[in-house]
Amino acid sequence: MKINNIAKNTSYYTMALVMQKVVSFAYFAMLARTLSPEDLGRYYFAISFTSIFGIFIDIGLFNFLTREVAKNNDQAPTQENGGKKAFAQNLLSTVMAIKIPTAIFSALLVAMLASIFHYSPVIKFLIYLSSISMVLDSFAITFYAVMRGFHNLKFESVGVFIFQVIVFVFGYFSLRAGLGLNWLIIALALASLFGFTYSALTLYFRFGINIRPRWNKTLMWSMMVTSSSFAIFGILQRMYTYVDQVLLQWLAGEKYVGLYQVPFKIIFALQFLPMAFTASLYPAFSSYWRNNREQLPISFSRAVNYLLIISMPISGGVMILAYDIVKIFKTEYVEAVVPLQIIIASVVFIFLNFPIGSLLNACDKQKINTRNMAIGLAVSVIMNLILIPQYQAIGAGITILATNFLMFVLGMAQVVKIIDYKYKNNVLTFFKILASVVVMVSVAFALKQYLNIFVNVAISGVVYLTTLFAMRGFTKADVFSIAQSFSRK
Asked: I need a labelling partner for 411 at 20 to 30 A (CA). Which of 172, 315, 371, 489 fits?
């Protein structure tokens, strides 16, 4: 796979995720300004609860499909070669035969646990509705996995944006009509139905692959064994992402789940940058591991530099402007300022953990990823159980910072064993960025009392980029390469 293809795929997906995250954050702001912290907590708790169990449908098959189709795709001499299409069809049909029963099992498990835990009738019904999205979304990402294996992110880029627009439009009219929380979840289910239908039809008409299941016991067993590490990792990762909100609801109450959504949604929205980059990097890493291992450390180092340049100013800027950011919502959420300042400090490690995880998976080291995630989850649960009763959302924020740093250290310890990684270039870039961020933060702090937050952000951003460019943290060639990636030539 060529470097230009990585840049082009990243550009498509980044544009789509930027638009999707803008709409998503606008929707969250609308919810926060309309709903009380308690109702906001109920809404997102239901989504978090079902999201944990959604991984039991996929059981690691998303990463497996992307990797295996990408490896086969790189060996095919032409796009018209029927062999790779038949290979992808065979894999997808077998995956569908696995996922249909796992989807039924997961939906029943969610319903059973919602009853066992004695949640209120309101939350139970929200969970039941949210499980519809859980099932549909799981199948949609499977179809997108095949497309990623063909190094194509254009159709997924369109799909994720339209998905969020549907949520926004139906959610907006539900709020205006005063229809309540149930209809907000129904809006999510309608968007998931679109995602499922769109991805399935795209796969059929654009790639010539249909979604019919086929029982092949030998391949199914082989596939499940091979993807077992992905499955375990996925389960642990999903639990790690949402367990803090479940524990907050249990130990502190729905109000703190609602308050916690402010920093959580900001961090979640920002993740489109590493997600877009590694969505294209992962199949490329898989290809390089098989065919061109000398390129692996080069691509990895570039990814680290790219994500440092983006994440460090975000972290510093949000810490300084946290109070002004929270004020965008309403005064009821002022208690979210300190959790936001703590959680945003972890954004650098969150960003860097994306390429680290992708590299380990691509190099057939998914068991190491799984082990690291298990350690992170165990530490997260222990710290949350200790800190949440005393510090509520602040305790959950401290846990996020500590566990993401821990997983970064564990991951990098393995990266240097797998590839010939030259860290000096990244270290030099890090200090250039750090100096530029100090200048930027100083300007932002000086201007915050006099300027609107959006004007302040714009000026501070220009100061950061100018300073970093002057220090040769990036060059004209880097800018040209990014601009060229948006070209269709």
From this structure: 315
